[in-house]
Design a protein that fits this description.
The chain has 1237 residues and is mainly β. Helices cover 5% and strands 44% of the residues. Strands 18, 20, 22, 25, 26, 28 and 30 form a 7-stranded antiparallel sheet that branches. Strands 61-3-90-89-88-87 form a 6-stranded antiparallel sheet, with no helix packed on it. It is elongated, with a radius of gyration of 43 Å. It starts with 14 loop residues before the first strand and ends in a 13-residue tail after the last helix.
Length: 1237
Amino acid sequence: MRILSPCRPAAHGYSWLTSPWLLATTSLATLSQALTFNPVPSPNFDISKLGQVGIAGDFNGISFYEFEGQTEQPFSSNGSERLMTRLPNGVFVDLLNADASIKDMCVFKGKVILGGNFTSIGSKQSIGVAAFDPATSEITPLPGLSGQVSSLLCDENASMVYVGGSFRADDSFNAITWLDSSGWTSLPFAGFNGPVTSIVKASNGHVIFGGSFTGLGNTSAPNIPDAQTVNLNSARFTTYQGASTAGFSDPKNLICNSGGTDGEGKTWLLEDNVPGNLAASFDFGFRPTKLRLRNTHQDGRGTRTWMFTAQPNNGIMNFTYIDPETGSNLSCTNQCPLSNDPSVKFQDFHFVNRIGMNAFRIDISAWYGPGGGLNSVELYQDDVYTFAINNFNEPPCSNSSTPSKSTSAGPWVVTPAGQSNSQYLSAILSKPITSDAASVVFYPDIRETGDYIIKIYTPGCLQDGTCSRRGQVDVFGTLNTTSGKQHLNQRRSIYQSNEFDKYDQIYFGHVDVSSGSFRPTITLSPVAGQSLSSNDMVMVAQRIGIERMNITGGLNGLFEYDPTKATVDTSDFSSSAFNKLGSTFDSQSAVLSLLATKSRTYIGGNFTSETVNNVVALDSSGQTAPLDGGLNGQITTMYNSDGEIFVGGSFTNTQRGGANGLSHVAVYNEERNTWTALGAGVDGTVMNIVPVALNLTGNTTEEAVAITGDFLRILPFGDNKAVNTTGFAVWVKSQSNWLQNLDMPVPLLDGQLATSLLKAPNNTELYAGSISSQSLRAYGVASTNGMLGNFPIKIAPPASLSGSQTSKLAKRASPVNNIDAVSGVVAGAFNTNNNRNVTVLAGHFVSTATSGSTIYNLAFIDRKNSDSVTGLGTDLPSDSVFLTLAVQGNRVFAGGSVSGSIQESPVNGLISYNLASGSLDTQPPVLAGSNVVVSSIAVRPDSSDLYVGGSFDTAGSLPCPGVCILDTGKNQWSRPGFELSGTVYVLFWSSNSLLHVGGRLRMNDTDVFLASYDVSRNRWSVFDGASDLPGPVDTITAANEKRDKFWAAGTRADGTAYLMKYDAGWASPNIVLEPETVITSLQMFSLTNDHLKSDLVDQDQALLLAGSIGIPGFGTASGAIYNGTSLQPYILTSSSNTTVGPGSLAKIFVEKEDFFKSSSKHGLALVFIVLIGLAISLALMLLIVVIGLALDRYRKKRDGYVPAPTSMIDRGSGIIRVPPQELLDSLGRGRPGAPQV
């Protein structure tokens, strides 16, 4: 698998990712037609001169940041889910967020219909169902449905979508259709009397519904109408022109005066001879069906006509009533009459329209005698609600012997209603969450035995700003005299992270009437031990609702519907093979999953009969295929992959037994009629089986199967050990193994998937769920040569931090102060001396040696010995933490928080290991102090001296606080100067004689954050400009090859990180780091291509920040690049506990520290430059001479010059011979005299 390379590759022998894993190369073009993925510019790091390169940290997955949209976001643990697709590098990316689960998807008219339990999706209020356009990424709500959708069937030919679940829409319950032309349209039957969980189209074209229903129909009116009394006790009353007479002015006199007697404290009056009104407002909503009024006769007074106005819609209500004089049924609106006959104790007025309200006003327009008044006002409703706030429940004076009520325990407070139906209770619970931290017990007023739907209502979290702090709750109920206490909602917890108000249907079934010996109860409590992304949990409780179901009977979880028929014959269900099969199931059965193939329809759920158990198939002729008798537990999900039916649930074997390894997941081969195990299965219930596309080798895409559920381990089988997981696993069919078991470069996938579409419009793939993914699964350490690769070792977090929420990289002032939170690989080193090739890894982790023994915290990988992995053995305790490494010759020194004994010699903070012998050798004299931690080790250039920094007071018997020198040849400590003390975090050599030390230091009774040590003078000094630093320096890296400029990062007093550069003075980059930023290390890199010019970073360099870097507008990145102008993500990771947060980087470690030498910009030695200059000069001189000779020859030729004769014949013809004596004659003569005239 090949990761698109942000770095220039260099050849090394590691396991590299060589191709994208979830997307074939050939599909990129078509994918881009629908969804645009913007690549980010390459950082152009040149690592070709560095040799081997390692990336150390606390992670189990790692990616380069290559496309916009990539994040380190962990998967959600609060119930919210996302619609996702994948980037060209295979990493999952969110398209939109939903505040709850997306349970099903299907393609309809080029759009994708989404169904689930959400109230908001894509930042739009959408209750249960919405449409997504892959071409624009726009979401379109489909309003009109209230509840949750569990199943969708898109029928393109019929231009309709079948929708099933637990909801109400139009006049239907639990099943309805959405038509492309007209929207919501009821089926010929009025839905079902229980929830629908699955819908498929059988091979005969009929639509099959599966669920927990026993008949067609919807809610029915109760046999006892107007049964529940609306509580007026908590109302706030106001009056207009009410009487001021003592005892008759308080409108609360009207509450619970069921006797209707007149008198002081029992009657409310108006002022004489004037109209007036009384108004009441409530902190809860209701839908009244009946108003009962008792007229007053106090002193001849009474109300003659009145009008009722509902608030907040300000509507005048219509009523029907019986005239007490004539017995006629009459109606009224704005002048409703009230009898003055004393024998008429009360009059009932029935609301024509059922309107929701939270306030009302009664206006009295005419009166008897001196003025108007009333003795009693009572409101009734059919709705059976029980509120968490007990003051909203039925009053003591209701006409019920068991009025609704509730009790609560815990730190509950009343929360304003906001946009919700009523006020509600909120409780802030501290971690860890226990089930008894808070609870509410509801006691509904059940007047008649029967089949009921029970719903629990949850107010939205947007209105009170608690979305990030909401969690999960459990609901238990005792609802009849035979079943006892039950875990409702199909034993599933309920997430309360909905942004808008919602309800969950938690029960459908038999409820017994309240009596003296039995009372139905429903208890709400938090889920114990739940994982939270916040520091506490906000739990809410509002109300439950109970609806009586209208039942036609004759069904039991299955119904076959013929779309060609306009009506449904409810008198003969047995004519359908599906209906008939359902009738053979035991009572209280449930069909949870349906699957249609070309020849069969598979039915899975929780049912038994004489011949089938939990799973069965019907062929096109209606014949039953018992599938080897079925399975011995509930089936919750099924998926068909080319005739292999993957089944998940709560089973462990076939009903007949004999099939090993069928633990909660299995595959049924339709052709061979056999069950096969997936390895040995998992250790808990499987809830969803979802197909995903993988690309593990080459460019060929293969289908794999992801399972999600309530399991914590993949069970061992063959040579594969058990694997811990968080309820998610992927079965790779081509490997016949789990993705988590494969010993090859594979991606990291973790989280949950609910459903997927591998062939969405425009050849896109869509996934619903919440996934944390990275392009490479790597534990604590990864290698890179431009592509990410694995070291031949598997790192795991220590047992003390595994699964702990403290394993996330914590804020720190130094490693010394956060030893307890350190996890993963903190430091690494390569040793290639003496023909070795050994990789050393140090930190706080657990691994396994090649011999099978357990390794703690320090590991050695011998690349020349078949990648053998060794450790320290049992000499040191497993809770040791190593923070730093240094290699000198054959020895590696490891420092940290480590104490114990080696070969009967005590060690504390520092150990020595001999790489040549592969064993612990003679140890340095022990360090001592109150809390000994070695945080930095630096070898002095060109010497055998090892400088050790940290938190300690003495070395051996030598006082040596903070920094000490170990002469490795003599194994002796010496103290560098006497001026410095404190805690050292980092050591940095700027030359072979000048050491810079950062930390929380003391010099001359003054706090110092950066100091310098001059070896030649044996003297400490405060670093120039150290007073300008805002806090202790945690890490330093050179900014140039001379090392006279450097970058420093540290921690301010408020815990936030800072970054500064020293270049003859301090300067801060013009970037913003988010408060959660932690910088663990810095490193400069040379580049293959220049970036824009800046003051702080050379154009051919860039600075890498490692740790957990908070970038505004992006989130966190484990590695980020600063190029002098901006901060960009570079490396993204996921942690071993992905629900807590992302991973983190500790540092980049390399074989060769040649960070300032670029392969594309080689510099030459001075001697070669001089020689090249001389050669060029000589060549130029020679060229000048040649050109001069050529020009002289040309001039002579132009002027007529001819060559002089060169033969003796030619010379002789023109010469007159002179005798020698004449030539020499003048030599003997004197000088001539003066001239003579």
